Amino acid sequence: MKKYNSIFKTILFTVFVLTFCHASAQTKSEEAKMNTYVASLMGKMTLEEKIGQLNLVTSGVATTGAVVNKGVEESIKKGDIGGIFGVYGTNYISKAQELAVKNSRLHIPLIFGLDVIHGHKTIFPIPLGMSASWDLGLIEQSARIAAKEATAEGLNWVFSPMVDIARDPRWGRMSEGAGEDPWYGSQVAKALVKGYQGKSMKDADAVMACVKHFALYGGAEAGREYNTVDMSLIKMYQDYLPPYKAAVDAGAGSFMSSFNTINGVPATGNQWLLTDLLRKQWGFKGFVVSDYTALNELTNHGLGDLQTVSALALKAGLDMDMVGEGFLTTLKKSLKEGKVSLADIDLACRRVLEAKYKLGLFDNPYKSINPDREKQDVFTDDNRKFARQIAEHSFVLLKNKAQTLPLQKSGTIALVGPLADNHSEMLGTWVVAGDPAKSVSVLEGIKNVVGNNVNILYARGSNITDDSLLNARSWFYGMQQIKDSRPAQEMIDEAVETAKKADVVVAVVGESANMSGESSSRSDINIPESQRDLLKALAKTGKPLVIVLFNGRPLTLTWEDTHAGAILDVWAPGTEAGNAIADVLFGNYNPSGKITATFPRSVGQIPIYYNHKNTGRPFDGKGPAKFKSDYIDISNDALYPFGYGLSYTTFKYSGIKLNKTALKGNETLKATVTVTNTGKYAGEEVVQLYISDPVASISRSVTELKGFQKITLQPGESKDVTFNITTKELEFYNNRLVYDWEPGEFIVQIGTNSSDTRTASVQWLK
Ligand code: BGC
Known about the structure:
Layout: H1 2-44, H2 47-53, E1 55-58, H3 72-78, E2 83-85, H4 90-103, E3 111-114, H5 127-131, H6 136-152, E4 157-158, H7 182-197, E5 208-214, H8 233-240, H9 242-249, E6 254-257, E7 261-262, E8 265-266, H10 271-281, E9 287-289, H11 306-316, E10 321-322, H12 326-336, H13 342-358, H14 371-376, H15 381-394, E11 396-400, E12 412-416, H16 442-450, E13 455-459, H17 468-474, H18 488-500, E14 504-510, H19 529-540, E15 545-550, H20 558-563, E16 566-569, H21 577-585, E17 651-653, E18 657-658, E19 662-664, E20 669-677, E21 683-692, E22 704-713, E23 718-725, E24 732-733, E25 739-740, E26 744-753, E27 756-765
Parallel strand pairs: 1-2, 1-10, 2-3, 3-4, 4-5, 5-6, 6-9, 12-13, 12-14, 14-15, 15-16, 19-27
Antiparallel strand pairs: 7-8, 11-16, 17-20, 18-20, 20-23, 21-22, 21-26, 24-25, 26-27
Helix pairs in contact: 1-13, 2-12, 2-13, 3-4, 6-7, 6-15, 7-9, 11-12, 15-21, 16-21, 18-19
Beta-D-glucopyranose (BGC) binds near residues 64, 115, 212, 292 and 518.
C-alpha cells in the first residue's frame, strides 16, 4: 500500500511540475510576444507621441480637483493623450476611442478609467461596510459585478481597490478602505483585484484594477486630509504596506501614487517607494499613475517648479500624470537639458503600452463597446438582488439590549430621522454613475418587507445637520442637503408625539454620504448635533429606541450605547438600502457583520487600534493607577473593539484544543474550538484567530489577526472550527526589516472579536 502511495505521489508531483512548466512557458511566450509588439510600436513613435502616452486627462464628468483638461478632442488626434478618466457610456467612449484609433497617426487605443469604488450603476455598501461582512466571496463578487457593469459602459480601468490602512476615523477616506488591519486588508485587496480583473484582463467584461493610494495615505497626521505621513520603517512594513503588496501578488495591473509625503518625500516623487520597493522588492510589472494633479502638487510640497518636479517624478518611477499635464508640457525640455533621459521616457511609455496590450486593446480597441450589453448588463435584477444580499451581510449589530431587535411584524412603529425617507444619501461616498433616485429608501424598504402588517408612522424629526459649516462642506457638486425649513424644536416635538403613539421607535440617523470620503475629515465624530437632540428627546419617551446608523467611519457613540435599545450600523448600504435594512430589522436576515475598525469612546483616544504595542507601563484596566500608560479621564479600551458585532442569536465558545503544545520548524499546529449556537435563531459567526508573540527581538503588537472562518449554525447546533497554523503566521519584520519568525512561546487566541478570545500557549522552536 505504502509503495502505491509513493508511486501515486510521484505521478501527482510530475503532473504538477509539467503543468507548472507549461503555464510558465506560456506566460513567457505571451510576455515575449508583448515585448516584440511594444518594441516595434515604440520604434515608430516620435518623442511627442511617447510623452503623450503618459498623459491622463479628464473631460470633467467627475472631478476631485479644480483643474480639468481642455481641447481633449484635438489632443487625442495629435496623440497627446494616453487615457481619459471620469467618463462612462459607450456613446462617449466609442467616439473618443474612434478618434484615437482612426485619427491619431499610430492608431494607439486609449484606456478609459473611472472611480468605480463600490459598484458602478448598481451600488453596493461603501467599502468599509463591505469589509464588515468578512465574506471574501461576496467582496470578490461585488468587484466582478462592478467590472461587468463598468465594461458594459465602455470602461476598461477602475481606480480601485483603495487598500490604505486607516486607524484614524477623523480621516474621511476610512470609508473607502477595509479598515485598520493589515492581514484582513490584504485578503480584501486580493479579493477585489481578482474580482475586477477576472480570469484575464483581455476579457470583454474585465477591467484593470488600480491600487491606491500608494502609499500610507491613511496615516495622515491628525486625520486631516492630504496631511503629512511620518512613520518608522517597521511600522510601515508590518502594519501599512501589506495590503499593497498583496495586491501586487494578486496581479494588479496598475497603481496610483498618493498625495501625501512619506518621511519628508512626497509619494508621487518618491524613488524609494515607486521603484525600489514597488518594482525591485515586490516585482510589480504594471504602471503607476499619479493621483489627481499630485504631480503638480509636488511644487507645494516644496520640491521645485513644474519642470523640476515632472523630471523628478518620472525618474522616481511615475509613469502617467493625472490631469496636471506636467509630463506633457515639460519632459521634452527636460530631455534637451539632460534632466531626464530618453530611456526614462521610454520606460514609462512602455509600461503604459504594455497595460493596453494586457487589456487586449491592440487586438480590439472596442472590446467593451457593445450597446446591447449597456442595455442588458447594467442595473439588472440579479445585480440588485446581490446588492441587497451584500448590504445585509455588511450590517453590524452594535447593541441589542433585551432583544429589542428583531422587530415584530405587527403593531405600530414610529420611523423617524432625516435619513428615513431619503434617497439621496443611501448610496454613500464615491458614487459617480449610480443614480440615487433609483435607491430604495428605508421607508420604502419597510413597506416592501412588511406591507400592511405593520402600522408605520413617519416623522422627519430633524435635519441631517443645522451646523452651517458642516452643511456647507458636506455637499459638493451642487448637491444640497434636503432640508426641512421648520424650526428644529417643532420637528422634534412632532417626532416625539409620533413616538408616543408607537410600540417602538426606529431612528434612522447619522452621517450624510459626503460627510465621509475624500476631503471630509472631521474633528468631531459624533452623530451631528441636530440628530443627537432628536435622539435625546426620543429616548425620554421611554419607548424602545432602535438606532439605524449611517456612517462612513467609526463614530463616538457612548451616549447612544447607553440610551438606545439597539444600534444597527448600516454604513451607507447602496442601491438596495431600504430593503436590506428592513430584512434585518424584521429578522428575515440575522446580522453577522463585524467591524473592521475600532470604535473609540472619544475622539481623544485616536489613533486607537487593537494591534497596538504593550508599552513599558501597561495599564491593566484596574484603576486608579498612577504612572501607567492610560488617561486620567477615560479608559483605554474601545467602545466597540475590532472584530466586534452581535447577532440575534448567541454563540458559546469552548476552550481551545491543540494537536500539540510543543512544535518544531515547519510542523503544523491545529487549534480547534467548538462553537455552539445557544440562542433561538440560525446565525452566522465570524470565528477569529489571533496570535501574540510575547518575547521577541523587537516589541511586538499585543496581538495580531491571522485568520478567520465564517460559519453558519442552526439553534442548538455546534461546529468544530480548526485553524491550521504554520510558522508563516508567526513571521514579522525585525529591526533589520527581515521577515522571519523567532522561536519561543506563542499565545493562540480564538474568539468572537479582538478582545473576547479563548487562549492557549505553545512553544515553537526552530
Ligand atoms: C482621489 C482618487 C481618485 C482620483 C480620480 C483623487 O482626488 O484621491 O482616489 O481616484 O481623484 O478621480
